[in-house]
Amino acid sequence: MFQRQNCPSESRLNTRASVFDIYQPSRRGADTHTLLALLANPTAFGERAEIFGLTKPVVSAMRLILALSLLACVTFSLAEEPRRGRRRGVGPKQARKQTSVSALQLGGSPERNGQDGSVFRESYKNTKQPKANYDVTAGKTEHCVFRGITMYDQTVWSPKPCVNCLCSSGEVVCDQILCPALQCQLKFQRIGECCPICIDPVPVVDGPEYSGDSPVPNDLTELYTGTSQRQTDRKERQKKDEEERIRKKDAERKQRKKQKKEEAERQRKLKEAKDAREKEEEQRRLQEEEEERAAAEERKRRMEEQRKAEEDRARRLEVEQKEMLRALEEAAERAQEGLRGDEATEDEDMVWLRGDVFQMPPVPPTRAEGPPLSALQEPTEPDEEDTEPREEQPEVEEEESEMVTTLLPPGCSISDVTITCENAKLTGIPPLSIPELKSLSLQGNEIQTIPAGAFNGIPNLEWIDLGKNKILSSGIDPQAFKGLKFLSRLYMDGNLLEQIPSELPSTLQELKINENNLKEIEENSFEGLSSLVTLEMEGNLLSEGNVNPQAFKPLEELTYLRLSRNHFRTVPQGLPSSLLELYLENNLIEEISETAFNHTTNINVVVLRHNKLDESSIGPLAWINHRNLESIDLSHNNFYLVPSFLPKSLVHLVLAGNQIERIPGYVFAHMEPGLEYLYLSYNKLDGDGVEPESFFGTFNSMTELCLDHNQLTSIPMGINEMTTLHFLRLNNNKIRHVSEDAICDPLSDGDSHLVALRLENNLLDPRKIPPTAFSCVRSYSSVVLKPQRIK
């Protein structure tokens, strides 16, 4: 039921419009209750007028209009009181009917809803007053009845929060209130209100809804109290924020102080660790220097002993040579004396000249099969004296004279226990009967066959050289060498052999069959040659396809094998475990498998120059774990990089004549005790081809380093750290500058170690080389700088 002071009427509606028209320029978002309280209380107005921007005359007019409105409401209520019980109210359904046009006309949101359904509209404060479609005309009879209450036409009221109703031509139209868009940062929505309000720049205290029963001074007190409280809260909040900020700064300062302390402690520990490490390195360096000094003294002592031994041996050889010369001179003098003596004395001297070793038996020896002796002798014209019979000489003397003249074929010579018949045009083995003979050289003749028993007269031979003849495999009798029980060396180079001769003596230690036509090595080709140490078969037609892997099995003592200038594409299989040196140069080898040297664990030297190898064709495990392999020759192949996985024990590496462009880092680091000789001449190394770690692992072992005939533009890094380097070749490059520490370490106080240094044929200006650049060279005369190429 409506109270009198809140009775809706046209005058009140107009009053509200006028109030809000006046209020519109004032502060937006102010509380309506506060405004009404200020209008009702002039004293409060003087204290808070600046909030709303209102003057006293304006407020007086507003109070007058409000008083007239309230009087009209009281009169209307007294006139309508008797009819309230008889009138029928408007039902809820009819009250909730909505008209879109009315809603749009009313628009906006309520600022404060009263208990009687009256409404103060926010839209009057924030937007221009819309022109209504309905007219508030006095004397119009279309009234509305809502819940037993009669409403004048065009009356607006709010039956519940956030709902506005309009009496339009006897019909009640209601609609939801639309909240306006507020242009402020701080918003607040009170309890029971449907739209938020702005609370800046002057905060408004929330309180109970204003009504005629609530005293105005309470609202002002609450406003003042709320404002003061909020200011106090804001100050406290600012104070707390300031304290929090100070606390954070203190915490950050303490944290920085702690971090500085930790950093100082860490730096101190690092310095202590560094000092300890430097001290340890210094001790180790001193120990190494002491060891090197002791080793140098030991080497010096050994060299001195060796020098003395060499001097003693040289003196002995000199004495022996003098004695030999003296003996030869005495023999020559005796020979001249014998020529002046009689025939008997001459015969005795001749026998003495042959020596006891060549003392011939009184009976002529049985001649071996072969060409007649007359075919091996040059024809001689008989002397007139020889035609006459010499009956006075004994028959024995004639036989001895005949033996002396027919013992050696023309073109042959005898020295001690060696007979040499080189290039004597012999067509067969000469018939010799000298049991004491040890060596026989028949090189450079035209011998084609070796019959059985060809060496019966010289059974004690130890060395036979049959090289550069025309001997065929079919021309060698199987029993030709059987009787030679002491034969240790047999040379058959430069013949026409297609197979290994059979039935060779078991005492044979050296066999050379180079430059023949060997096409096959069978399983039993070396049967019985368990004492063979050296085997050479270079320049033949051998390959992995015609060499039986079991052929080398009987060679239990073989240490030296030469298979160069053949047709091998891989390393031959079945090599004996006793092998120490293997020569396979000038073949067609393209690959070294990981099993190639599995059985040759003692091998020491491998020569593979002039083949078709590259860095990718060597298996990683081919030889890296060999502990005795010290020398490898891979020159003149197809390498572009220094190959990896080289043997750990490698000392001597030859890679000259390849296309090497780079030395990878740490490629020598795994070697023990370290590489000593490295030859990289005639390659394509340039300024970027040598890395700082390329020579890592060789600084304490490298003795000879050859980098000549490359494309280097500067001294490679790491050379100045090689403390044992004796010979360095850098000639024929493109080096333009030599810095002070490129070759020698200026901080090193050790003795000069470089013996020879070659830098000729570069682009150097000798006048620009620092004076201390060669401080580690023993003698400046051993530094070769001229000539230089000027560009």
Characterization of the model:
The protein is an alpha/beta fold. Among the domains are: 4-214, no CATH class; 661-791, Leucine-rich repeat, LRR (right-handed beta-alpha superhelix), CATH 3.80.10. Helix content is 29%, strand content 11%. The protein has twelve helices and 26 strands. The protein has helices at 10-23, 32-40, 42-52, 56-80, 92-95, 100-106, 123-126, 216-340, 343-354, 373-376, 384-387, 395-406, and strands at residues 110-113, 119-121, 144-146, 149-151, 156-160, 163-168, 171-176, 187-188, 197-198, 413-415, 418-420, 439-441, 463-465, 489-491, 510-512, 534-536, 560-562, 581-583, 605-607, 631-633, 652-654, 677-679, 704-706, 727-729, 756-758, 783-784. It has a 17-stranded mixed β-sheet, with no helix packed on it. α1 packs antiparallel against α4 (56-80) and α2 crosses α3 (42-52). The longest helix is centred in the middle third of the chain and has 125 residues, at 216-340. The relative contact order is 0.03.
What's the gyration radius in Å?
64 Å
Nearest-integer average pLDDT:
76
Please give the number of β-strands. Answer: 26
Tell me the distance between the termini. 118 Å
Structural class: alpha/beta
The quaternary organization reads as single chain
What is the overall shape?
elongated
The main sheet comes to:
17 strands, mixed
Poorly predicted regions are: 1-34, 82-140, 202-217, 342-406
Report the helical percentage.
Answer: 25-40%
Fraction of residues in β-strands? 5-15%
Number of helical regions: 12
